[in-house]
Amino acid sequence: MQLYTRVMAKVLVGFCNELVSEAVSVGVLLLAAGRSRRFGEDKRLAKLSNGKTVIQTTIDQIRGSGLPLKICVASNDVFFSQNFQFADVEIIFCSRSNRGMGATLSQAIESVKDWEGAVIALADMPWVASSTYSKLSRAVSSDLICVPIFRGSWGNPVAFGSFFYPELRALDADVGARHLLGTVEAKYLKQISVNDAGVLRDIDTQQDIT
After folding, report:
1. Cβ-proximal residues to 167 (8 Å cutoff; 6+ apart), any chain
2. Which CATH number applies to 24-209?
């Protein structure tokens, strides 16, 4: 009986390990290195009606999904590193962020080589629901790009499978990831319907938070 129990335990452990190895690892890469030119000041620190800052609200929404999170900031962003410390969040300092969003993403994508999919999120979109991040993470696979769609309009964030990481690494200046959506074959592009107006709402000016 003891021998049977040990054998069955080994079989069960092996089965669980196989399931883990086959699981798709997906996380969120949050781009937060922008310079907020049109806003006039650091819009990440602007207060919303909930009493929290834009960046804190965005982070809270992502963490609410339970997904791994990495945040990309400028290499000289001392304020962020001193004021936003999370045990379960990695901060990536991007030395090329001054070149634009594309350059930031190109550098940051190197840090997620072990993910089979990355949900590329924007710091100035605090109204995206946690459920949207979760839905995109479940839909994406290594050879797919998943775009949220609300009432017929494409939004953000967008989830990229690892097959497209080389294209993301090739980005530069202010050419962002959405540029790729018009270049890939339709079979690699999947529209994900969401009941979330937040995927269409970002912050460019101070009027956008009123």
Report:
1. 180, 183
2. 3.90.550.10
DSSP the chain: -HHHHHHHHHHHHHHHHHHHHHS--EEEEEE-----TTTSS-GGG-B-TTSSBHHHHHHHHHHTTT--EEEEEETT-HHHHHH---TTEEEEEETTGGG-HHHHHHHHGGGGTT-SEEEEEETT-TT--HHHHHHHHHH--TT-EEEEEETTEE-S-EEEEGGGHHHHHT--TT--GGGGGGTS-GGGEEEEE-S-GGGG---SSGGGG-
Q: What is the pLDDT of residues 66-118, one digit of tens each?
A: 999 999 999 888 778 788 777 789 999 998 888 888 889 999 999 999 999 99
Domain ranges, ordered by start, for the chain: 24-209
